[in-house]
From TrEMBL:
The protein's name: DUF2924 domain-containing protein
Annotated organism of origin: Sneathiella chungangensis
Origin: domain of life: Bacteria
Pfam assignment, any one: DUF2924
Amino acid sequence: MANISSECQLSRDNLIDAWIEAYSGPPPKGLSTRLLRYAIHYNRQAKEYGGLRKSTLRQLGRYVPAPHKTSPAIETPTATAKPMPGTRLVREWRGRTHMVDVRSDGFLYEGKSFGSLSEVARTITGARWSGPRFFGL
């Protein structure tokens, strides 16, 4: 086993190669050279001496919270298909009710054809909106 003083002499590129050999993959991005040295040396010591005792691992486990499932703070809506032709979408915006008819070739709003709901939402609001989000889809 190489001693730590010889590992202190290794260049960063050599340390990365040693990490890949020790951990079977590249180091995390942004890992400092100092931490690379410590991790490689620890890995070599663990291989030579057997690593931490089970009692030590249990003790450390008490300080690490168990992973638990939580629901996300914001749920991402699932991707939805275009509404079926013949569907009428209704949205109230700034005191006015807007109705959009879904057609097989696009959308009809106030007698004009649109290729996407986002175009309709832009016409209504004057700003770039996600059409499906604007209409609550």
